[in-house]
Amino acid sequence: MQPGDPLAAIQQWKRDIYYIQLGDPLAAIQQWKRDIYYIQLQAPKPKKIECHIDIPSRPIFYGKEFHGEISRHEADELLLSDGCYLVRESQRNPGCYTLAIRFENATKNYKLYYDVNLQQHYVGDKYFDNLDDLVADGLICFYVHLKAPGYIASMNTGDESHYDESPYMRYRNDMMTRRTNRPTLVGTRSQSPAAQASASSQLSHQSTFHQSPPSLPTQPPHRLSSQLPGRNLATAGIATPVLPPRSSVFNSSVGVPPPTPTTEPPARRLSSDGPDGPRFIPSGKQAGDWMDIMQQEKTHNFKTTTFKSLANCWCEFCFHFMWGLIQQGVECQDCGFRAHKKCSEKLPNDCMPTMKKLKRMFGLDLTTLLKATNKSIPYVVEKCIEEIENRGMHYEGLYRVAGFHDHIEEIRKAFDLDGDADITEHGYEDIATITSVLKLFFRQLPVPLITFEVYPKLTAAVTNESLIRDVLVELKSALILLPTSHFQTLKYLICHLNRVSQLQNQNMMSAENLSIIFAPTILQSPQSDPISAMTIGKVEARAIEALIVNYSFIFER
C-alpha cells in the first residue's frame, strides 16, 4: 500500500459507498461505460450573442438573441467561437426564423419554430422552454457525433450490445426463477397480488426492487362442484362428448345433460424442498398453462422520456450513456427498461411488466396484467366470479340487472389503487354490483377477450351449415389461435357461465340470455359499420351461446 492512499487497502467491490460519499456516483456504477458521459461534459456551452439595437419587429417569445433581418454572412461575422448562437429573421420569407449556431469553426443554420400553445421552442422533435437549453442540447449532440463516430456506427449496426449482462436481464431471470419457486400461503380463497406480496416477503429473505409475485393460479371456485362440466369427461378419458341435435348447439333450451360427479384433482401440490420452507407448486396442465403465459412474448411499451437523474441515464442495452438534456432515450412503461431509441429497436419481445409500473388493473392488456401479477387468470375476474358463485347463482336476472354506478366505480378504483377490494356481502350486498364490475373489466380491455384475429373465424364457424361436429371443431380450432392469456381467461369465464345456465330455472339466465349480454363485452368486430351492427350482433350472440352450451367439448383439450 502506498503512503497516503486510503483506498489501496479497500477491495474494489467495497469502494462504491466510499465514492458515493465523495460525491462521485459514477464510480459506484462499475459496469456502465462512461466515455459518452465525459464527452458530454466536454461539449461547448451555449453563448448568446445579444443585439443591442432596438428592433420593433422582435417577437415577444425572443429576447436579445434576436437580430432581425440579417444575412448569413452577417451572422457568420457575429458568431466568433464554438457555442455562440443567435436568431435571425429570413430576408426571403418574413415571419420565418433561423437559429444560427457556431460549431467547429462553421455556422449551422436551422429553421426555428415556436409553439404558442405549449409556449416552447423546437427545431426537430424536442421541445424546450428556452433557447439556451435547445442550443445546449444541440451542441452536446454535435460533439458526441464528432468524438464518438465509431460508437454511433455500432448503434446502427447492433454490434454494441451487452443486453444479456444488463441489470434488467439479471432481474428478469431472477424474477422468472423466483416466480417459479415462489412461496405462498395456504388459503382456499384467491389472494390479491398485494396480499401475496406481503405473504411472500414474510417467508423469503430474497430482495427485489419490484412487487413480490402473487400466488399460483387456481381453478374457478365452484360452489356447484358436482355439476362442473368438462372435468368429469376429461377424468373419464372421453375424447368427444355425445353431441346433441343441431338446434342445441345454439339453443340452450334443450339443456345440457348433467355431468357425472367427479373428484377434482388438487390445483396445487405441496413441496417442502424449497430454501425457504414449504411452498406450493402448480401441478400438471395448470403449471403448463401458467408457464405458457409467463413465457409468452410481449413487446416493450416504449415512450420517449427525459431522465433527470444521472443514475437513470445509462442504456441497459449497450451500457453507454444517453446523452442530451431532455428526451435522452426511451423507457418501457410496463417494465422500466431504459435504452437509446436506436437500441430499443433491437430488443426482443421479452418485456417483464410489474405492477409497480402499471399501477392499475382495469384497462390493461391482458397478457401484460397476467405477467405482472404472476397469475393465469386476472385477479379481478377470479375474485368477482368467486363471490358471484358463493352467493349469487340463484339471483334472478343475474348479469342482466345492472348495479349502482357509484358502487361500481368505488370497486374499480379500489382494485386500481389498492390492488384489492372488499366485494363481500358485508361490503356490497347487491350482487348486481359485482356482476357489473366483472363486465366492466372485460369492456375496458384494450384488446377484446376474443381478439380481432380470431373474431372472423369464430363468427364464420357458427354461420357454417356443416354438420354439428364440424361446427364445434371449427369453434375449437378458432379459439386455439388465441394467446394463452386470453384462452385461459375465456375458458374460466365460459366455465362459470355454463354453471350459471344450469340453474336457469332459478336465475332465469339461459345460455342464450347470457350470450346476448356477454357477446358485446368480449367480442368486438374489427369493422365499426353501424348498419351491419344489428345483424352481426345476432351472430356474435350465437357464437358465445355455442361456447357456453358446448363448454366441455370445446375447452377440455
Task: Count every beta strand, where a strand is a DSSP E run of 2 or more residues.
Answer: 11
Number of helices: 23
Apparent shape: elongated
Structural class: alpha+beta
Largest sheet: 6 strands, mixed
Compute the gyration radius: what is it? 31 Å
Low-confidence stretches: 1-30, 182-189, 199-248, 251-285
Helix content: 40-55%
Nearest-integer average pLDDT? 75
Termini gap: 70 Å
* Strand fraction: 5-15%
The main sheet orders its strands as 1-2-3-4-5-6
Description:
This protein has 557 residues and is of the alpha+beta class. It has 23 helices and eleven strands. A six-stranded mixed beta sheet has the order 1-2-3-4-5-6, with helices on one face. The protein has a three-stranded antiparallel beta sheet with strand order 9-10-11. It has a two-stranded antiparallel ribbon with strand order 7-8. A hairpin with a 4-residue loop joins strand 5 and strand 6. The protein is elongated. The protein starts with 15 loop residues before the first helix and ends with a helix.
Short description:
The protein has 557 residues and is α+β, with helices and mostly antiparallel strands. The protein contains 23 helices and eleven strands.
